[in-house]
Amino acid sequence: MSGGSLAGRLVLVAGATSASGAAVARALTSAGAAVVAVGTRPDALEALQASVPGVATHVCDLSDLGAVTALASDVHAAAGRIDGLVHLVGGWRGGGSIAGQSDDDWDFFDRAFRTLRNTTRVFYDDLVASPAGRLAFVSSTAVDSPTAGAANYAAAKAAADTWVRAVAQGLRKDGPDSAAATVFVVGALTGLQAHLGDEVVRLWSAPPADVNGARVPLTAAEPLEPRMNQ
Ligand SMILES: NC(=O)c1ccc[n+]([C@@H]2O[C@H](COP(=O)([O-])OP(=O)(O)OC[C@H]3O[C@@H](n4cnc5c(N)ncnc54)[C@H](OP(=O)(O)O)[C@@H]3O)[C@@H](O)[C@H]2O)c1
Fold first, then answer.
1. How far does the centroid of ligand 1 lie from the alpha carbon of residue 142, in Å?
2. What's the whole-model pTM score?
3. CATH number for the domain including 34?
């Protein structure tokens, strides 16, 4: 759709093949954005492309900095700099108790965290250069209410949540009138995927200062209001 509110914007969805990835890609394309969807499984990206026509796809292991740098070169050559990065790589592992928090599970979460560090480091200059750069990340209520049984998960999400708000501080300095990084906070995404897509699109109609560094609760019941601004 070329005439939507996001016409002319290019948005990369990192980890695009989950139900929330498809919903976000659908909302973005419906608003007129060009979308680059990224994941590691070609078959899942093909299925996404079939359900959200017009989405461009790239296979990339985003935990590999070299691969993300190569991805950026490809995207820049094909479509130019991005205006938005929606980071959705997550995953869940429990453990049952503090003693049950395994190194293997921690490595799993560290890998997801590295996808956030890599994509934001590589595409930061794009977000600053854009007339409307936006970074969106989905955090968890576990950050504020951690449990022993999910300590690995909560600690890793807390690190990622903090990383995004550090990016926000950089954007406040480097792109104060144009760029913003926002954390959505949710307990469970089931049933809220389309709502997430709508809220991601809405980031572009909000003044950057209103959403930069904000932690926004994602609930179905009420309209979203930033809970905290730096
Ligand atoms: N689901 C929930 O209830 C819930 C609750 C709170 C917060 N969140 C957060 O919300 C976000 C989205 O969650 P979700 O459950 O919809 O998605 P998810 O299951 O975490 O989806 C993972 C996505 O990331 C991709 N991915 C995984 N490793 C990758 C890598 N190394 N490089 C590139 N892509 C990779 C996967 O595709 P491939 O397998 O093809 O690589 C998939 O598209 C996450 O940050 C999650 O922590 C979710």
1. 16
2. 0.96
3. 3.40.50.720
In angstroms, the Cα distances linking 181 to 68, 80, 103, 160, 164 are: 19, 20, 30, 12, 7
Number of structural domains in the chain: 1
The residue range of the domain holding 65 is: 10-216
Establish if 95 belongs to a structural domain: yes
Distance in Å, CA 124 to ligand 1 centroid: 21
Average pLDDT, 10 consecutive residues per value, the chain (230 residues): 83 98 98 98 98 97 98 98 98 96 98 98 98 98 98 98 98 97 98 98 98 95 47
Nearest protein Cα to ligand 1, atom 7: 140
* Contact yes or no for 166/230 (Cβ under 8 A): no
Q: CA 75, 117, 140, 201: dihedral to nearest 10 degrees?
A: -30
